[in-house]
Amino acid sequence: MEKKEVSPMKAKKTKIRRRILAAFSAVLFFSFALTAVIFNIAIRLFAVDRAVNHNGYDEASRIVGRVGIIQFVLIGIMFVVAVIVTSFLSNSITRPIEKLGKFAQNIGPGNFTPNDFEFYEEELEELNGALNNSVKQLAVYDGEQKAFFQNASHELRTPLMSIKCYAEGIAFDLMDPKQASETILHETDKLSDLVTDLLYISKIDNITTAYTNEEADLTEIIRDCAARQQPIANKQNIRFTFDFGEETVLYSCVAELISRAVDNLISNAIRYASSEITLSCHGVRDHIIISVADDGSGIEAETLPHVFERFYKGKDGNHGIGLSIVKSIAAQHGGHVKAENSNQGGAVFTMTLPA
Description:
Elements: H1 16-54, H2 57-107, H3 122-171, H4 177-205, E1 214-217, H5 218-228, H6 230-235, E2 239-244, E3 250-253, H7 255-272, E4 276-284, E5 287-294, H8 322-332, E6 336-341, E7 347-354
Parallel strand pairs: 2-4
Antiparallel strand pairs: 1-3, 4-5, 5-7, 6-7
Helix pairs in contact: 1-2, 2-3, 3-4, 4-8, 5-7, 7-8
């Protein structure tokens, strides 16, 4: 029968304290033992020399015997001292590690309260700082997720209730079927858009989601986004104006996300523009600037600080999710987005990305 090798990963585990204790004890014990052996040899040589010069063989034998007893006692004392010293050292090293281990175990059940531990060892202090930073980030993420699901359930409930009411109106002959059906279709479209946005923002915020960057022409992405929304713009007699440089703007990014961000900015601009939307993209020094400007009435002063907050709906807003998606996408690429009113009137949304 073939004998299977034991995997190193399945080897018997030992505590660090025991390993330190064994290692330090062995080192100290053998150091002391070596010293004792050298001392014993020196005494024996002294005794032999004394016996040869003074013919005191009996005295030399007694000296050697006493030295042997003293050496044996010293080795025992040294061993006890080695065990005590290494036990103290191992406890001082492993106790902080066990303390941090218990703190890390509490994170799993959802305790995201940072600790106030202080360590004299620089490495342990850095590890403790990293754990506290992780706990703070998890606390923020957990709070955002809870608020997200609460707001999402509220936003989903509104169109569902509307659909239910109109469906009941048709069922009990209380409403005109055609008019009620149009309202149901309209609310269904809103609900579909809302679910799509919710799934998208959940995907962006998922800390385990991995994206692959690729080099893309941002001006081409912007033109494609405008072309997709051209039919909606035509219905409201809105034209697109492009402000690009002569050179293409190549950027390493997640093209799908950048495209979604620009789509949301254009969709938002169409909602408020009077007749024109200006789309621009330029590389400036070490960053790239994408802006979407409309010629509408601009953003109200009380709304401006909150436009990128999730589920915040300003005047004539839709779900309050689109612009928050833009903010998340910009952050994913290490950039940021801002909103402001232009001097000529209208709103300008500017997304800045590091080159």
